[in-house]
């Protein structure tokens, strides 16, 4: 353990603690570690969409896990971000069904409009772009996800309207 | 016979609500099983009779899987639902979760009753936020109605059910990787045996089934295994959800009898877009070897028909490609996917998927060498069957399929350093 914690409730705000506790309650008492994926997502959302080592260490302390076990999870799953992302993380699917429905045009359009490529964040921090694998919405190809929302049957015009509608 | 099983409430307004599901007889069979204390063996027998085979892609008989659990063994047992839908081209479980979550819940409770499990988890992929919220709402409704919790309807049977959210890893659709993931670890598959029926979640006996498989259970028990089997054909009982996408007019999810001719499914999906010619079909998710369009037009959507053409029905994800598609580029994208998603545990898969991608990539970008085609065959062969889980095979199969049917396109790329269809 990296830090000695007397009171776990000091690790996060009461609200975050309550949210993590809801995940812990789903699993057997001796398997708190099962809540690690939920906890990392809660903490990531609360931190503008990415995880710092310090936050991962806190999750480790909160769940009585060795920090390395938390890092393993955070680096294995693609939805955890270990570098800053935009306020709106734009995830574009480029897998086969989207590709054959011209996802490349969507990617090009976003790149031109935002001045960034996959893996980059706009200077004002509002947007970042990420290439993702099949998101299971091939009937609406080409598609993308921003935040928790799926957007399907995209055209450059529809993409413009979606981005304008974001805060 | 369309939308008779998992999508039977689809025509209703807000079909995901408890009252809507119940208006179609939802939870009636659960009530009957619980109040009549129907023998669990009898339920498993009925599922066996139905011919239901695992709808996630492997096609293993569901009833047989359930019978591997020793029902009376002491201690905790688990029912786990695999809603980690991620096989490229597959988008059917998303619709079950969004539009008929109660039927999945009822199916999971019935599965728990049949194998003597009092706890269940539904593993939903992390990106599926809307389906997750629908499912959570349905769980709450089910709890309030007394279908979840302790002593269900006074039967003495307890069942609690929770959702686990994934974090973006295709490999977690592999059943033992999924169990690792619920345990809060990297999703790396386990050696089998032991199988989950003996050593599953938290080391306890566990059955793990696909969303569509479990959502089929209430109808099988309501109308009988024979009724379900008779919808389909020999070796492929029931109806099945097909997710059809690609270059077609009306992509979507269609629940139709097993054995339906592909040509009819294509027609339901509005036919080819812009009147283009069908070139190729990937019939069961991107791991399923490609089938040339004209050959596919003569096949039926069931396990044996598709297997007879050297491919597999898989998850029922049908990707239809027209004649503007370059097969080298298509394979390049698929190989990239398996390389990206390999969990890194087994050397043949971790290294081999990278080799496959890099070699296809160099052919696609005009840098191919004559010996590359044999090299691809060789690498694919060195992965197949040499890994803990099926991801290695899933990466090798599309390569083998593409080279079998479209070798000339790959050769053309190598010879002319460009694409023969002019698209790439």
TrEMBL record, chain A:
Binds 1 [2Fe-2S] cluster. The keyword Iron-sulfur applies. [2Fe-2S] cluster binds at residues 93, 98, 134, 138. Its cofactor is [2Fe-2S] cluster. This is NADH-quinone oxidoreductase subunit E. One of its GO terms (molecular function) is NADH dehydrogenase activity. Pfam families: 2Fe-2S_thioredx (PF01257). Signal peptide: none annotated. Belongs to the complex I 24 kDa subunit family. InterPro entries: NuoE-like, NuoE_dom, NuoE_N, Thioredoxin-like_sf. It comes from Candidatus Thiodiazotropha taylori. It comes from the Bacteria. The lineage of its organism: Bacteria, Pseudomonadati, Pseudomonadota, Gammaproteobacteria, Chromatiales. Keywords: 2Fe-2S, Iron, Iron-sulfur, Metal-binding. It catalyses: a quinone + NADH + 5 H(+)(in) = a quinol + NAD(+) + 4 H(+)(out).
